[in-house]
Amino acid sequence: MSWKGAKAGPSLDERRRLRAVFDAVHPDAILTVVALNILLNTIAALLHDWIPKIALLLSAVAGVAYLVALIWRARRAATEEVTVSALEVHVPKCRAVILFLSYRRGKTPVSDWLADSRFRGGILNPEIPKIMDPGTHESWRMPVEGMAVHYPKIEQVVVITSSDYVKDPVKKEIDEGSCHQYADFKLLVEKLFEDSGREVTVTDLYKFLDDRAEFKEGVDFEDARILVDALVAVYRKLHEKGYQNKEIMVDVTGGPKVTTVAGAAIVLGKDQVFQYISTRDHTPRAYDVTYIGA
């Protein structure tokens, strides 16, 4: 995606390469300069007696011109602002949905929903969200809305849960994570898709990534590095299962702002969008955030 009339600057990948080469504190910069110096001196020594002086001079001029152009692009990449476009687009129906599960504080027991016959196969029943959230700001309404929009294509749901947070080590005060509520959420989702004509597999991060120990008790929703690592691993696994990027949707509604940033960042440059459920009217929205150069 690009703006007409806008002069494209260095690509995102090129910026990384230029920064690695011209950043003096980067080990790769030192090694690159040393290697280039050795290579150029070796070539000059070998070709000095083989090539006419005019040809050698032209080669040297061409080499210097290339280095000047490279340095100019590096300076531009370092000094000019990065341009990013963000557009709201139609939510594409996807086969796989990745979502962050917020800790549920609602008073209605999940068992009441599971016992309600209206929930069986009720993923498309417009009354279900109202039953779940009769003006009580029920947090689990959001992921239900986020999955329903992908029916009938949806077949895989990967749930990333939050871990416990120790608020006071001395008093042993713990803010529980949604990892303790995953079992109930899984039952709820399976109930909603039961007899719906679509079989959906619901898996938490730990099981989806073949019992990776670091995700057994959820993920710290305020650790961007771990969140991005988890998302990258999920994408890799989904690719192994045959899913293409356009068939994967990251829902960034659940969790704090850090999960939103991680989810949006992971799709940048993948030619896909991320999803958010509006807290105003509970409408699923999709956003295409694209890097378009400087």
What does this structure look like?
With 294 residues, the protein is α/β, with parallel strands linked by helices. The chain folds into two domains: 12-80; 88-291, 3-Layer(aba) Sandwich (Rossmann fold), CATH 3.40.50. The chain contains ten helices and nine strands. The protein has helices spanning 12-22, 27-47, 53-79, 110-115, 127-132, 141-148, 182-193, 205-208, 224-240, 257-267; strands spanning 84-89, 96-101, 156-161, 165-168, 173-175, 201-204, 248-251, 274-277, 284-291. The strands form two sheets. A seven-stranded mixed sheet has the order 1-9-8-7-2-3-6, sandwiched between helices. It has a two-stranded antiparallel sheet with strand order 4-5. Strand 7 (248-251), helix 10 and strand 8 (274-277) form a beta-alpha-beta unit. Helix 1 crosses helix 3. The longest helix is centred in the first third of the chain and has 27 residues, at 53-79.
